[in-house]
Amino acid sequence: xxxxxxxxxxxxxxxxxxxxxxxxxxxxxxxxxxxxxxxxxxxxxxxxxxxxxxxxxxxxxxxxxxxxxxxxxxxxxxxxxxxxxxxxxxxxxxxxxxxxxxxxxxxxxxxxxxxxxxxxxxxxxxxxxxxxxxxxxxxxxxxxxxxxxxxxxxxxxxxxxxxxxxxxxxxxxxxxxxxxxxxxxxxxxxxxxxxxxxxxxxxxxxxxxxxxxxxxxxxxxxxxxxxxxxxxxxxxxxxxxxxxxxxxxxxxxxxxxxxxxxxxxxxxxxxxxxxxxxxxxxxxxxxxxxxxxxxxxxxxxxxxxxxxxxxxxxxxxxxxxxxxxxxxxxxxxxxxxxxxxxxxxxxxxxxxxxxxxxxxxxxxxxxxxxxxxxxxxxxxxxxxxxxxxxxxxxxxxxxxxxxxxxxxxxxxxxxxxxxxxxxxxxxxxxxxxxxxxxxxxxxxxxxxxxxxxxxxxxxxxxxxxxxxxxxxxxxxxxxxxxxxxxxxxxxxxxxxxxxxxxxxxxxxxxxxxxxxxxxxxxxxxxxxxxxxxxxxxxxxxxxxxxxxxxxxxxxxxxxxxxxxxxxxxxxxxxxxxxxxxxxxxxxxxxxxxxxxxxxxxxxxxxxxxxxxxxxxxxxxxxxxxxxxxxxxxxxxxxxxxxxxxxxxxxxxxxxxxxxxxxxxxxxxxxxxxxxxxxxxxxxxxxxxxxxxxxxxxxxxxxxxxxxxxxxxxxxxxxxxxxxxxxxxxxxxxxxxxxxxxxxxxxxxxxxxxxxxxxxxxxxxxxxxxxxxxxxxxxxxxxxxxxxxxxxxxxxxxxxxxxxxxxxxxxxxxxxxxxxxxxxxxxxxxxxxxxxxxxxxxxxxxxxxxxxxxxx
Amino acid sequence: xxxxxxxxxxxxxxxxxxxxxxxxxxxxxxxxxxxxxxxxxxxxxxxxxxxxxxxxxxxxxxxxxxxxxxxxxxxxxxxxxxxxxxxxxxxxxxxxxxxxxxxxxxxxxxxxxxxxxxxxxxxxxxxxxxxxxxxxxxxxxxxxxxxxxxxxxxxxxxxxxxxxxxxxxxxxxxxxxxxxxxxxxxxxxxxxxxxxxxxxxxxxxxxxxxxxxxxxxxxxxxxxxxxxxxxxxxxxxxxxxxxxxxxxxxxxxxxxxxxxxxxxxxxxxxxxxxxxxxxxxx
Lengths: 855, 282
Known about the structure:
The structure holds two protein chains of two kinds.
Chain A: H1 18-22, E1 38-44, E2 50-56, H2 58-61, E3 66-71, H3 97-101, E4 145-146, E5 152-158, H4 161-168, E6 172-177, H5 184-187, E7 203-211, H6 214-219, E8 223-234, E9 243-249, E10 254-259, H7 264-275, E11 282-285, H8 301-313, E12 317-320, H9 323-329, E13 333-344, E14 350-362, H10 372-375, E15 388-397, H11 411-429, H12 433-440, E16 449-450, E17 456-457, H13 462-473, H14 475-488, E18 492-502, H15 510-515, E19 524-530, E20 536-540, H16 549-561, E21 568-571, H17 589-616, E22 623-626, E23 629-632, E24 635-641, H18 642-651, E25 663-669, E26 678-688, E27 694-704, H19 711-731, E28 761-765, H20 783-800, H21 814-826
Parallel strand pairs in A: 1-12, 10-11, 14-15, 20-21, 27-28
Antiparallel strand pairs in A: 1-5, 2-4, 2-6, 3-5, 7-15, 8-13, 9-10, 9-12, 13-14, 16-17, 18-26, 19-20, 19-25, 22-23, 23-24, 26-27
Chain B: E1 7-10, H1 14-24, E2 28-31, H2 37-42, E3 50-53, E4 63-65, E5 69-73, H3 78-83, H4 85-90, H5 92-99, H6 104-109, H7 112-118, H8 124-131, E6 135-140, E7 143-148, H9 149-152, E8 153-155, E9 158-159, E10 166-173, E11 179-185, E12 195-204, E13 207-216, E14 223-224, H10 226-232, H11 240-243, H12 261-280
Parallel strand pairs in B: 1-3, 2-3
Antiparallel strand pairs in B: 4-5, 5-10, 6-7, 6-10, 8-9, 11-12, 12-13, 13-14
Helix pairs in contact in B: 5-8
Protein name (chain A): Aerobic carbon monoxide dehydrogenase (Quinone), large chain
Domain Aldehyde oxidase/xanthine dehydrogenase a/b hammerhead (chain A): 23-179
GO molecular function, one term (chain A): carbon-monoxide oxygenase activity
């Protein structure tokens, strides 16, 4: 162990994880090979909505290498009747824990939607957002009805994956196709096909929130602006697809389940509940996990079935998802229709905001499906303060892959709508987009501050990030270039788009969740243990899947303990090592889990200080701790190192009276509030008005996530986050045809941008410490994804504004941009402002060519 | 994403490949890079029972100066054409177009012969070869024949190759000072072209002497923009925009999630104008 005089937090410590990852030596789930292991492959429905009239697996069972084939009916006895009974099986948001622990239905549905006859629908849902929430029955293998294309209907178990895949072709399923609903707005019209006919409606729930007097705000407004925006459905696309290995342990009668997940602790609880395996008989391991972006914040049918098969067949079972399955069977994100309306005075000061959402649930409720859009409910007011706010969200069932958390989860949707409407407000009032934002900012604050959505922001200084990004981008220079291009009729027009965003991170304070009517268990656990050698093990309940916790947590522990990061090992992702944990999602790891590491390490130092005082025969108050050394105040020569103390604590032959041996301390941190990172972004686009092609020329961002632990990791999170935001704005969209087939079912059709499509980022930081934790940290995992989409679209619309174009939906493909220009040019001059925002007409000569014009 | 079972044979020579094709008939497919074939096999959209791998035929990997034309071996990889100095000097259009195919991984495995034989109208090289008036040398059990690029592509993924024939060489005339351009329009660098336009323009006393334009993804095969070529013949460079406004004449582009028929036609016109204008600067 090294006594470390220097500090490591804030320094660019190289990621400990990278050498193995970049040389292909990581331990992915698919690398796990166990003796006697069999391989499962699922047969999936080609129909989005159909009755299953018969399944014949007899021919498949005869295929070479096939050991067993099961249908949904075959496995019905394996599931518990009330799978959601374990309170730990919730992700922290469940409003009806009480109801569920009473073991009766929380839906009020007792007559068995979709034909099931149990009292309570069996489902993966854990976030029950409303007492009236309609929960479709959702068994891991469909048996009487399929509700989305890709839903599993049978499973083949064979000696290898190839043989299992080949045998699938010998299963004969008879389907009776039913009417399909895919479009959200159509789903809410009278007479629409129903995703679940038993409900009599496609509405899953309606949830609302209101503060202030919204009617008064609109009645006294000088201006009002409206927006109608579409949030495309997105496919998370973690680079490692899902996969699971379930291994029976004949000695203790339990199971070890290796699964590519963000949430081993939650998965353990859900599997325990779902299958009646006692919690103490289940060990969950998340090996090295290649990304999740929220898609692995879930528990899936295939994980349940793998454990069922291991239990039933008594051998290890492996299932690895292929990319085509990943597109169909792993949750999707976003998928909303947003209506937003803002009332303001003539100076551009907001008086009130109304938000109405339709949110696509897909065919079933996964863990958090119903709640994701509601994370946005608290975020629509953004960085702007005003007196009245109303929000309503209708969850809508469709015959499509279920939705759930995808990086940002509800907050990118909110940031997009509010930042788009701020540009509309700028246009309506004639103010510069930067100025209209500034007029509505909170004054800088370093105490918790009330928001229009009824929560409290921790700290903020929005002016600072905006001022700095304007300088960084040379805003005046950009506007000058834009003017020149417009005047010269350049076919390539320049766009400048803003986004000043905030977000909710650090999920989640149990008490605040409760006050919001949303369950609890938002804490996180850390244990810091000094070994006899003086080296350190940190056990964390967070579960990294690319974030670099091993590096960051090492830095945090090293600084508190006075050692180097190399002296610290971080253990995670295994419920046998970390029995308690609430896992990784919602930018919670640092502001909850990292803070727990910091506080546990402080407890170690407190105890070590007592031992050092005993060893030095001094009073504890006279002991100073600096750079890994305890010394007596005023007598620096009288000292012992942390190594000495760790050794003494371990040997336990010279400890203060009554003190327990070893230095090992746990901390369960339950934060008093969320954290609210923020930032200001400017996206500069060049729009080819002849082809519609949008090129991002530059991207400037000034972000504030509080003090940072590792700048390289923070930059990486922002680069990747902005890339995913750009992807949503310009490239990605899950497209379904009318029969409910996913037409963008591969990486050829679902466009994930790569390095050639993305700009260089010019990023800076400001530091406004959070008031929600002792370290002041806020989290950064989702910031870029939340900030970027409106900056990009605002930029595209800004470039096209001389045509009178006031909106282009995401993804702003070249075709869509070109079509918008065609439509605008097809209109008579002077009527181009005829849209909902009421944006003033640009002075455009109607005979001008498509190469832009003077404004 | 797991293909049906298939047998794998390594061709030791072109004649051996022809012999293997003769044995297996149309159950066999040639593997010449595999970046189109293997993905569709994994999706089980194609299920050949035998793959005949041409990957060891190093003697089909060459670019030779044959005096009036260049000869390119069918197994020459895109990355090799991209950097080949002979191509760079005498036929920059091929070197440049090869540099736009797929991504670096694809260019290090994919071959010119594989790309042409697959006959995909959305591939870049076929339309460039059409604009160059290239010839293809084809060998089969009945002997060797030479097919003009303009006669080679018959329909969607269909060429004049018979099941036992192997494309062995591509012959392209030297440009001899003619200007060239390839304009590829796609969403992402790695994608197939939504529309692509290859142009070869010869100058004559300040006017356009002749222009040949090849269109990518404007129909079931790569196409020539004959009407625009005629309009450009002998035209003044200032009239390029007008002359290329007929670039989509005679095409039948598809409508899909990337583009409508109408938008593809528009792109063909814009890109043809830009390609000819750029060719005139080279």
